[in-house]
Write a structure and sequence with these properties.
Elements lengths: L2 H9 L4 H8 L3 H11 L4 E3 H4 L7 H9 L7 E4 L21 E2 L1 H10 L5 E5 L2 E2 L1 H5 L10 E5 L2 E2 L4 H16 L6 E6 L11 H4 L8 E6 L18 E4 L6 H10 L5 E3 L20 E3 L8 H10 L5 E3 L8 H4 L10 E3 L8 H7 L7 E3 L8 H10 L5 E10 H10 L4 E7 L20
Parallel strand pairs: 1-2, 2-4, 3-5, 4-6, 5-7, 6-8, 8-9, 9-10, 10-11, 11-12, 12-13, 13-14, 14-15, 15-16, 16-17
Protein name: F-box domain-containing protein
Organism: Pristionchus entomophagus
InterPro entries: Leu-rich_rpt_Cys-con_subtyp, LRR_dom_sf
């Protein structure tokens, strides 16, 4: 066994950050380390080189070490939502910038790149214009909570043209995601002009681009078979929803949060393979819709119904039909009460429950939660007044390791002060 082969075996077990340190030992070790760099298939800048996200030259130097056979590149920190924490308040950074030089270096070095994920970075206009240069081998493109530096309509048009050219040049694209809220994407417009260029191979379309998303229908779906579909804050109608179900009956993940123009959600009941469903913020979701969905989609494991104001306890008890349910969010629903909690006891796999700001969830409901759900690991009770001493007692008697709530101490009546006779005035 040659010494170089032995070193190669040793270096294959160290981190990418340590490979940089090995390069500084000697010229021979630099050669060995560079050869190990050429074998890397996945690189996560935030995990292994956090300083690179704030230094474009450092990032370019790292990309220059990569092999053309690199398959996955992640730049920036994922949002909390991607880690399962469901946060809507991810801050996009101000100093973490991707420039045109970075995109050009990726295009030059990563010739077989399959996955590109950009999280919480600032994309300059020149970087966006360079997007069509990215390798045509990309199969998964994810842009999450990024900020696009496009401050005028003309700059927005240039960014849109660049995105259109990019997606039209990716014949193997399977996943296309642009996620974010508010003014993240500024004057960039995501509409049919971009989405009509998606390859027929795309099976995952996840779009939540705040006010940049301009969609009034789903004609861009055409005849593609989707596995995952997210379209938040759009203006699609009930007819579009029926068309989506007819075109892609095998959807497993559906997110139509804040779809203000949908008045009938019953069509979702035809998605018998549905696993996760997010209908939060939909004011027209009614009890009969939820009952139909629960009967038609018994395999669901995650449901989000936050702030669906028209749902009553009579409709929410239908959730008890989902025996495989693992994660449920009912935040902001005043109709959640003990009857609903008792109906959920049939969901024996329930591990996470969010009933924050549900004012009818009282101590009796809490006691039932801690005693009747064997696999429950997290209960979110933010915004509900819960006696801290009682929570400590209940938690000690159960296997629940984490209860997220706003605690208060029970009020102890304070006796009125005893009147004290004032001292006598001195004699003059």
């Amino acid at each position: 066994l040659r010494m170089e082969d032995a070193w190669g075996h040793v270096l294959s077990h160290i981190s990418q950050r340590d490979l940089l340190a090995v390069e500084r030992v000697s010229k021979s070790m630099k050669k060995v380390a560079r050869r190990e760099w050429s074998l890397q298939k996945e690189v996560d800048m935030q995990r292994d080189f956090p300083k690179a996200t704030t230094d474009s030259e450092y990032m370019i130097a790292l990309i220059d070490r990569l092999s053309p056979s690199l398959s996955s590149l992640r730049i920036g920190a994922p949002s909390a939502a991607l880690d399962g924490q469901r946060s809507h308040h991810d801050d996009f950074p101000s100093r973490h910038t991707i420039t045109r030089s970075v995109i050009e270096e990726i295009s030059k070095r990563c010739l077989r790149l399959r996955k590109l994920a950009i999280h919480r970075m600032v994309l300059t206009l020149n970087a966006l214009i360079a997007f069509p240069m990215l390798p045509c081998t990309i199969e998964e493109l994810t842009i999450t909570i990024c900020r696009m530096d496009v401050y005028t309509e003309e700059e927005g048009r240039l960014a849109q043209e660049a995105m259109t050219k990019l997606v039209s040049s990716l014949p193997q694209l399977r996943r296309f995601e642009i996620l974010g809220r508010g003014a993240c994407y500024d004057h960039f417009v995501l509409d049919e002009r971009v989405l009509h260029q998606l390859s027929p191979s795309v099976t995952h379309i996840n779009l939540s681009a705040g006010s940049s998303l301009k969609l009034a229908d789903l004609r861009f779906i055409k005849q593609r078979q989707l596995d995952s579909f997210t379209l938040q804050r759009s203006f699609i109608s009930s007819v579009d929803l029926e068309g989506l179900v007819n075109i892609s009956p095998n959807i497993r993940h559906l997110d139509l949060a804040y779809s203000r123009n949908i008045s009938d959600y019953s069509a979702i009941s035809s998605l018998q393979f549905l696993k996760t469903l997010n209908l939060s913020g939909n004011r027209y979701l009614r009890d009969e819709h939820l009952d139909t969905i629960c009967r038609g989609c018994p395999a669901m494991i995650e449901v989000d119904l936050d702030h669906c104001d028209q749902l009553t306890s009579g409709g929410l008890v239908s959730l008890g039909l989902l025996h495989s349910l693992q994660r449920l969010s009912l935040s902001g629903l005043p109709s959640v009460n003990l009857v609903v909690i008792e109906a959920l006891t049939r969901c024996i796999d329930l591990a996470r429950l969010d009933v924050s700001f549900c004012r009818n969830v009282d101590v009796t409901c809490l006691s039932s939660l801690l005693s009747d759900f064997p696999l429950l690991r997290l209960v979110v009770l933010k915004g509900n007044s819960v006696d801290g001493k009682l929570v400590s007692i209940l938690r000690g008697e159960s296997i629940l390791p984490f209860l997220e709530c706003d605690l208060f101490e029970p009020c102890i009546p304070v006796p009125p002060p005893i009147p004290v006779r004032p001292p006598l005035l001195p004699l003059l």
